[in-house]
Amino acid sequence: MFGSRLASERKRLKLSQEAVATVLGTSRSVVGMIETDQTSLGAERLLKLGAAGFDVLKVLTDEPGKTAAGRLLNWDLAMKISESVDDWARMRGVKLHPEKKALLVKHLYLQFASREQIDAHLLNETLQMAA
């Protein structure tokens, strides 16, 4: 299942099976077995491949990583953060440059994503420092 995607990603990166075997700490024949789905890829191997520059989400989902990651993004939370930043700036008469706003929304999203909710105190503190 994942084997052919791994082979495609390896070829995209212009790597030989030998090079991938070195990354994985295994033999070329094991890489061949993974690429033909005769043995499992496994989480540990995926982590090693990701660290070596492989698009692991492409291997797992057959979608480029950025596309797959976009599907995983909590868009409702991202929009609420963007609206909160706009409200904060409007209430204080602060004009945020679009690039600065984008960086703030990204930073705040990374802070709030694991909780899936906005921490008003942290939002306010971050925006005060950035303004």
Automatic annotation (TrEMBL):
Top-level taxon of the source organism: Bacteria
Annotated InterPro entries: Cro/C1-type_HTH (IPR001387), Lambda_DNA-bd_dom_sf (IPR010982)
UniProt GO molecular function: DNA binding
Domain HTH cro/C1-type: 6-60
Protein name: Transcriptional regulator with XRE-family HTH domain
Taxonomic source organism: Acidovorax delafieldii
